[in-house]
Amino acid sequence: MHISMNMPGTMFTYDFMQNAFAAAGVVAVLCGLVGFFLVLRSQTFAGHALSHVGFAGATGAVLIGIAPLWGLLAMTMVAGIGMGLLGERLQQRDVAIGMVLAMSLGLGLLFLNFYTAYATQVTALLFGNVLTIDRATIWSLLSLTTLAIGALGAMARHCCSPACSPSWRRQGASRYG
């Protein structure tokens, strides 16, 4: 049996591998940037909860017959804006975030119960398959990533400001107030 030393190079001759690496690269860049701000503001659990909210949105979208990506995006945006409006009341309340997480998982499972497709389609919806991504999805991901990076850029100054840090505000309030 002959193993080619050029195996990594031949891997990229397939369109599905090119698509998979392009999509994973786009998502990795965005996740790194968003993760920085989540860690900076101590909101990693809220970020984790939003992924489960996205699951409920994706399953709901499939149930009503639209693409899962748009349901995931819509539900995550609504929940993220809601969490943002609750602000500091939600930031230190892991119980409230946990309740949102549990409710969204429950909704996702309810939607899956009503979704009467084959089990393999349900598994694909739950876990996805990066090898089945097409060029149109990559362009959608690239557009959404560009919008998200633009929004992060617009909010970066505010997010990095020490005045936005809850610990800094507590110290300043006790020292000066």
Number of domains: 1
What gross morphology would you assign?
A: globular
User: What's the count of strands?
Assistant: 0
Task: Describe the sheet with the most strands.
Answer: none
Mean pLDDT: 80
N-end to C-end Cα span = 77 Å
Number of helices: 9
Strand content: under 5%
Please state the structural category: mainly alpha
Task: Give the SSE order as H and E letters.
Answer: HHHHHHHHH
| Poorly predicted segments | 173-177
Radius of gyration: 20 Å
Percent range for helical residues?
over 70%
Write the layout of secondary structure elements.
Blueprint (H helix, E strand, L loop, with lengths): L6 H5 L3 H26 L3 H21 L3 H19 L1 H4 L2 H21 L4 H9 L7 H26 L5 H11 L1
Helix pairs in contact: 2-8, 3-4, 3-6
Describe this protein's structure:
The chain is mainly α and 177 residues long. It has one domain (15-176). 80% of the residues lie in helices and 0% in strands. It has helices at 7-11, 15-40, 44-64, 68-86, 88-91, 94-114, 119-127, 135-160, 166-176. Helix 3 (44-64) runs antiparallel to helix 4. The model is unreliable at 173-177 (pLDDT under 50).
